[in-house]
């Protein structure tokens, strides 16, 4: 049966209109030839329990205030954790395993602080702010005086509907939570100080410290280094189990290669070597990546991060890439036991050039 054969009062649109009118709903637009689909209109507004029971409204108010207060306490916990928990403290938390206690505490407290502000705002909007849907005609987006006046009027109406002036408990706790959350960011500024002083200019290398092979943990001897080989070493006394191992090896990592003395072009490099054995910082002078790719025929080393290339036969000068200056060289010698040793620390800061300005 076609729609022309169905009585108008039995059409879905007509039935919806009659149903809406019978239940006090908003007016429903009828079908037209230009728009065959009828506008369903807005459903009848149903008051919430908070709209008719002040005790329920008070309960919602207290719930929102509780979440804002919990946010403030979490912010205090964030600051306390940052101040009291050491960066090297490791704890076991199931099922995460062994993790940094500081990172876990900071993430948890800051997450709770932000979540409670959001949850409080949502609960406030859903239970206490006006939920009456108000249709508005679309109009061009223009910043004319009428629009500005309407926006300000709507804002004033919204502020009145939110009862922010009457619900002082919500207002005060919300302001407190919003005011305290930024303190988390201010506390993080502590990590910008104190000034590094000379910490970035020096390493653990010192006169007399032996070169320890990082693969064998044994002192490195000249006969252990073959021509064309690449060996990574660390200073004597540095243990991988040390709590600050990562911080120290990030500055003190050294690569050792052996080049035929006649192939060394730089005079100082030759003087600081032992029978063609030279030691250079492993830390790239671009952004601090560890260098590990060595080409024995050309004596070039390549940083895998941004392809900075250094010539180890010519003072480790930069021949390609974004690195700003050569790799620092470590002056080495041989001690009485026949082991390779450092004759001092690097004479310039290792790593990226911006460290030199610290």
Output the strand order for the largest sheet.
Answer: 3-4-5-6-11
Classify the helix fraction into a percent range.
25-40%
| Cα Rg | 36 Å
User: Main β-sheet: number of strands, strand sense, barrel status?
Assistant: 5 strands, antiparallel
Q: Mean pLDDT score, rounded?
A: 85
For the secondary structure, the number of strands is 13
Q: Low-confidence stretches at least 5 residues in length (pLDDT < 50)?
A: 1-28
Order of helices and strands: HHHEEHHHEEHEHEEEEEEEE
Residue fraction in strands: 5-15%
Number of helices: 8
Which structural category do the helix and sheet elements fall into?
alpha+beta
Query: Tell me, what's the shape?
Result: elongated
Q: Distance N terminus to C terminus?
A: 86 Å
Characterise this structure:
With 358 residues, the chain is an alpha+beta fold. It has 8 helices and 13 strands. The protein has helices spanning 12-22, 49-52, 54-84, 101-127, 145-162, 168-188, 245-252, 267-271, and strands at residues 90-93, 97-100, 211-213, 230-235, 254-258, 277-281, 293-295, 300-302, 309-311, 317-320, 329-330, 332-334, 340-342. It has a 5-stranded antiparallel sheet. Strands 7-8-9-10 form a 4-stranded antiparallel sheet, with no helix packed on it. Strands 1-2 form a two-stranded antiparallel ribbon. Helix 3 (54-84) runs antiparallel to helix 4 and helix 3 runs parallel beside helix 6.
């Amino acid at each position: 049966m076609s729609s022309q054969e169905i009585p108008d009062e039995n059409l879905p649109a007509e039935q919806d209109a009659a149903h809406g009118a019978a239940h006090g709903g908003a007016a429903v637009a009828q079908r037209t030839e230009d728009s065959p689909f009828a506008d369903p209109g807005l459903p009848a507004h149903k008051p919430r329990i908070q709209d008719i029971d002040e005790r329920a409204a008070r309960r919602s108010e207290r719930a929102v205030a509780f979440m804002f207060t919990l946010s403030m306490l979490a912010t205090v916990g964030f600051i306390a954790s940052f101040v009291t928990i050491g960066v090297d403290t490791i704890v076991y938390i199931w099922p995460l395993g062994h993790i940094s206690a500081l990172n876990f505490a900071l993430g948890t407290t800051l997450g709770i602080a932000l979540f409670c502000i959001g949850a409080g705002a949502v609960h406030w909007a859903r239970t206490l702010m006006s939920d009456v849907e108000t249709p508005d005609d679309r109009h061009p987006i223009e910043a004319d005086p009428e629009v500005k006046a309407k926006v300000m009027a709507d804002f004033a109406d919204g502020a009145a509907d939110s009862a922010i002036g009457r619900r002082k408990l919500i207002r005060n706790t919300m302001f407190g939570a919003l005011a305290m959350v930024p303190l988390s960011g201010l506390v993080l500024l502590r990590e910008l100080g104190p000034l590094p002083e000379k910490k970035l200019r020096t390493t653990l290398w010192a006169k007399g410290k032996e070169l320890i092979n990082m693969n064998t943990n044994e002192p490195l001897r000249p006969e252990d280094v073959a021509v064309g080989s690449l060996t990574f070493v660390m200073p004597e006394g540095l243990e991988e189990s040390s709590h600050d191992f990562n911080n120290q090896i990030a500055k003190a990592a050294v690569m050792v290669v052996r080049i035929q003395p006649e192939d060394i072009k730089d005079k100082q490099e030759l003087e600081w070597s032992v029978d063609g054995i030279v030691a250079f910082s492993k830390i790239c002078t671009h952004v601090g990546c560890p260098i590990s790719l060595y080409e024995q025929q050309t004596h070039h080393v390549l940083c895998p991060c941004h392809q900075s290339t250094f010539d180890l036969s010519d003072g480790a000068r930069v021949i390609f890439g974004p690195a700003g200056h050569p790799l620092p060289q470590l002056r080495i010698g041989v001690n009485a036991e026949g082991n390779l040793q450092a004759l001092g620390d690097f004479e310039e800061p290792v790593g990226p050039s911006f460290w030199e300005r610290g």
